[in-house]
Amino acid sequence: MSALRRTASTGRRDSEGTPDVHDESTLHLRADGGARGRLRRRVVTAVPERRRGRRPVALNPDVALHYLYLAVHAVPGGLALALGPLQFVKRLRVRRPELHRVVGRVYLVSVVIASVAAAVNAAVTISGFPAQVAFFILVAAWLYTLAMAYWSIRRREVRLHQMWMTRNYALTFAAVTLRVYPLLGLQLYPSVGFEAIYTVAVWGSILGNVLVAEYFIVQSRQV
Taking every pair of C-alpha atoms in the chain, what is the biggest distance, in angstroms? Predict the structure, then answer.
């Protein structure tokens, strides 16, 4: 009778999901499942914040109009980004000089508006102090190169105007490289935090674009 009770008790434990100590295959499966669970937890821990759904550039909760400032920067900045390449088309400059001037004026106004909004965004950003410094440098260089390009053409120094516009558009194009570099960084260094990758991307987008611009300027002098 006691043997029947032990058998019934064992059967009840088996039906409730407790593995039999003699069932080695069940134990191996449970062990493998636990290992996979631990591995999954390690992988999730190593995933950067960007892949967990967090914003790459968080809005400042203490600034109610931060989103508006970003929009004011993005719209004219995007317009300048789209119009810039047209100014480097030699055929357009030669055949349609009036159009070249009109596009240039629109580009100038767009960069000024985008720069002012970018300065406000840099002041309230929560992306960290190193990135904030880079943003302020970018805004200052953006406005300075634009002013030099404008004054050069006003003095009819066309060649100098082209050089400064090359530098200015390289800084405008930082809006593109700043989006590309973090994606590459997350793929190449998935264990590094997003804030560190983003900070490096900000500085890299500025310095890298400036170096590329200077390369094109030097090459054009040799032609």
Answer: 112
Measured CA angle at 115 (ends 114, 121), to 5 deg: 90
- Secondary structure of residue 217 in the 3-state scheme: helix
Distances (CA, A) of 177 to 47, 55, 174: 22, 18, 5
Tens-place pLDDT, residues 101-139: 999 999 999 999 999 999 998 888 888 899 999 999 999
Residues 6+ apart with CB under 8 A from 139: 115, 118, 119, 122
pTM for this entry: 0.70
Tokens of 75: 């719209």
| pLDDT given for residue 16 in this prediction | 46
Structural tokens at position 17 = 């999901």
CA atoms within 13 Å, Cβ hemisphere of 87: 25
- The domain locations on the chain are 2-46, 53-221
Q: Pick from 181, 183, 174: which is nearest to 210 by CA?
A: 174
What does the alpha-carbon distance between residue 186 and residue 178 come to, in Å, rounded to a whole number?
Answer: 13
For residue 209, how many other CB atoms are within 10 A of its CB? Answer: 22
Enter the tokens of residue 6. Answer: 């032990």
